[in-house]
Amino acid sequence: GALLVSERIDREELCGALSPCSLSFEIVVENPLELYSGAVEIQDINDNDPVFPSSQARLEISESVAAGARFPLESAQDPDVGINSLQTYQLSANPHFVLDVQTRVDGSKYAELVLEKELDREEQRELHLVLTALDGGSPPRSAHVQIHIDVVDANDNAPVFNQSTYKASVRENTPSGTLVARISAYDLDDGPNGDIIYSFSSHTPAKVRELFALDLATGELRVKGQLDYEETKLYEIYLQAKDKGVVPGVAHCKVLVEVLDVNDNAPEVTVTSVYSPVPEDAAPGTVVALLSVTDLDSHDNGLVNCFISPGIPFMLSSSLKNYYTLKTKAALDREKNNMPGIPILNVSATDPDLGRNAHLSYTLLQGDSNVGHLFSINRENGTLYLLTSLDHEDQVEFSMTVQVQDGGSPPLATNVSVSVFVTDLNDNAPTVLYPHPNTNATYTDVVAPGTPAGHMVTKVVAVDADAGYNAWISYTLLQATDPSLFSVGLHNGEIFTARQLREDDAPQHMLVILLKDHGEPVLSASATVSISVAEMVKEVLTDLTEVSPANDPKRHVTFYLILAVILVSAAFFITMLSVGIFKCYKWRQSKELYNSSRSTLYRTPGPFHHIDAVRGGFMPPNLYHQVYLTTDSRQSDVLCKKPFSSSPLGSRQSTIRNGEPGLYHQIVGTASRLPTPAE
């Protein structure tokens, strides 16, 4: 039960700025079966330097700016967190400016230059300062940026905001163009020096600029993109007002936009394990499946109530939040999957006679032994009943003959053919064929170092015993040693390299592939694939020698299967070659016959060129076939049933006339002519 570190952990790559950084996992304990969850917290070390966006910064500051004016500086970024993140800034010694370090709502630091002594352009035209960013490590890491300040003549008055901080709330589903806040600033100057232009501050993140739009003239802040509460709950937006003077005056403010959550995420149910099939003698409390339910919304919108349909012998229990166990609640009875005795069809016939001669009785003829055990018919009204449950995987179609007979003397009867098609339910989870899940053998696929992106490494092969849409399987990568290295085809299960393999990649990779069908409800399975990065196969074989071979009595099955495929392929090739030679021989023979008979083109034709094969007696009645076509399927199958028994053509036509439109009818085909010798 020891949990080990399998490769070097990079906290910044895993979690970015998120703190604390934790990796969650689930543990299944058997005998008794229970599910536990755990988490590993990844602690940060000071392995990253602070970084400024650029090595130099230039400011233009008017000599008329009063003491106390503030000038935001570009912030440095440090991917570390906690005490190892950016902690403070330092400014080189100078007589005019001091540094004020501020803290944002999220805890990050930014610096502002504060004018302590008024500038005089006549005394000093330029100032050169050095801004240093320091983190809290021991020893601390640092970064520097050169600040070049041009002192110029500018307006006597800079714009001033009516408040330094604005607050607003907006719902995450707010449409684009909705007004969030309106900022306002004033300037006592006249003309262009008093005209104000609003804009985002220089240190406003690009993400904020994508989600919000600011009107340059009115200061209206509106929604521009799609807000998502689950991504960001609070936006701290820094804006500035600048006049149109030669050296514009600038004022700054910030807008705090709170994103309100709406119930825009549906709960997601994931079947982590399914134990199927379940025997009908399973004791109450037997575990059938393990489920997990998640909802990305928050507060009441994220609370999930999980339940199952009433009236079934199953129940849900929960030992952990949002984790459920599906168990049997009572004794199971397989014969109650399809309720016996339900009517499925009504065969109806009419008789123009009167009295007893028009009294009809219906009988199910015992053509197939299984039909009598599965179906029955009401003699009086022709209702067809189901006696037991059906399974689409066992048999898709049942054909039977219903005879309707009047009460006259002698009685007259007519037969009608009835076909019952069993529709498919999604009652089978995908089955993994490769890699085989129920074996102790180790399947390891090999990929060479330096393999480019798009190279197919291996393929997960699975089947689903269901049919149609219920059998469509999708493949997704559930877990991987390095999620950025491999990808899996959604519909074919092929595993490709997502990028080129590098020398620093791990030599062993374990992938967990989730297989889901498209039925309702969705059933799933998982497959574990082991991939080794090695120059030669022998390197992998050397690693595998440490694994003791499993005592598998069927270890030679693969060899015999390959041998059988080779023999069948060889036999098929020889057969096709023989057929080709025979066809060539017949073609040459017919060509010679044609050349020899060109002088006899006007000979009287033979007596059997255009003769109805059925009426002339050349095609026996037992060559009639039933043809069924499906209309609601991606692929139509033609099912040729067994030949009809000998009966007069008139009896078949009577059967068709007396059948209901809803029943499947027999299609009788006759040959229009006999084939010519050349054909």
From TrEMBL:
Q: Where in the cell is it found?
A: Cell membrane
Record's bilayer topology term: Single-pass type I membrane protein
Query: Which Pfam families is this protein grouped with?
Result: Cadherin, Cadherin_2, Cadherin_C_2
Tree of life domain: Eukaryota
Q: Name one GO biological process term.
A: homophilic cell adhesion via plasma membrane adhesion molecules
Q: Where is the Cadherin domain?
A: 53-161, 162-269, 336-432, 439-551
Cellular component, GO, one term: plasma membrane
Gene Ontology molecular function terms on file:
calcium ion binding
Query: Mind telling me which residue stretches traverse the membrane in this protein?
Result: 559-582
- List the Gene3D superfamilies: Cadherins
Print the keywords alphabetically: Calcium, Cell adhesion, Cell membrane, Glycoprotein, Membrane, Repeat, Signal, Transmembrane, Transmembrane helix
Q: What is this protein called?
A: PCDGK protein
Query: Which species is this record about?
Result: Eolophus roseicapilla (Galah cockatoo)
